[in-house]
Amino acid sequence: MIDSPIMPGIVRKNDRKIVMVVLGGIGSAADPVLGRTALEAARVPNLDHIARQSSGGLVIPVAPGISPGSATGNLALLGYDPLTYLFGRGALEALGAGLAVEVGDIAVRGNLAMVDGKGVVTDRRADGIPTAAAAPLVEKLKTIKVKGVEVEVAQSAGHRFVLRLRGNGLSAEVTDTDPLKVGLPVITSSATGTNGALTATLINDFTAQANALLSDEPVANAVLLRGATGKPDLKSFNESYQLSAAGISSFPLHLGIAAATGMAVYPVEHTFAAHLAAVREHWDEHDFFWIHYQEPTSTAGVGDFNEKRRALEKVDVHVRELLDLNPDVLVVAGDMANPTGHDGHSWHAVPFVIRSAGTLGDSGVERFNKRDLRAGSLGQFEAKHAMMLTLAHAGKLRQFGA
């Protein structure tokens, strides 16, 4: 883990290169009708090839039975203990969307949504509105002024946007306005601590103005806010591990994770080919590449088994290019489980394989999926230990103890 007391004494720098590919939401449970997961149904010969050459197993993003958020699952893979580094997602989304977050600021993630005449949520994600269609609605939100604070709004992706408040006396000790389920009314934000009353009032003011501006919109006539947080306080990834790291993604949250941890940040288009192109372009500049590819999660979010299967097969077409780069260590993993037919993320363990000169296919598995990797040589372990294992395979850890 990044804050392990033994880390400074054992980590060492060398010129070996690491590529960690995180496929969003590939952890899963068997479809209750089909009896298998989308990853088992997908034809992924290149991922299977990597699995046969690797040590493999399953990782638990947080702890048994705990369903992680996407930020939580990814930070855990990077060595940040999810039970220690607890904060809302708002600031990470803001950083990824290009907003600076300073000490004293509060950032909140937002959804464009639909409510009925009584303020009850009928669609939390505005019918999957595309980013381009959401842009003029976010432009409306940018006109909102709230007395006493500076308001900044930035578009994220699809139905998502980010709100940043800057002023005196702000606090993240507030409740969300998002009820997290349809059929429930939008929540009035309230303080959860002694310092949250002002911020809750400001959030409610913004919400009222936003809903008035959007009231005639046919697809998104309201906003839902959640995940208020201040500036993230994360240990430097590069300094702690003695790496020169690059973060590559098309999704603002994950770009925000890269920025918050101190990585160089490279935004790319949504295709997996674009992610790999960025690795090739910056290959000589870094020794660690963290690639987060969002599409498997995005398709699973609508609960479509075949869409998730197709998304995985599209990734696999380009996976051979990872081997062509010939990294000293290659990790392919999931960040959390997002099963088709399941409402949101789940607690299930997720696939993890690591390929290096020292693995030689010792897992004895034939396919890259949860059922096969359950029998892999790495067994099942908490994701927060993945970076230590990765550094060890790259020869970047000295012996510990006498």
Structural notes for this entry:
By secondary structure, the chain is α/β, with parallel strands linked by helices. The protein folds into two domains: about 5-85 and about 235-395, Alkaline Phosphatase, subunit A (3-Layer(aba) Sandwich); about 90-230, Alpha-Beta Plaits (2-Layer Sandwich), CATH 3.30.70. It contains 14 helices and 13 strands. The protein has an eight-stranded mixed β-sheet with strand order 9-8-10-1-11-12-2-13, sandwiched between helices. Strands 3, 4, 5, 6 and 7 form a five-stranded antiparallel β-sheet that branches. The two termini are about 20 Å apart.
- Please provide the count of β strands: 13
How many discrete domains? 2
Largest sheet: 8 strands, mixed
CATH homology superfamily name of the largest domain: Alkaline Phosphatase, subunit A
Derived structural class: alpha/beta
Note poorly predicted spans: none
Query: The CATH topology of the largest domain, please?
Result: Alkaline Phosphatase, subunit A
Determine the fraction of residues in helical runs and give it as a percent range: 25-40%
- Rough shape? globular
Distance between the termini: 21 Å
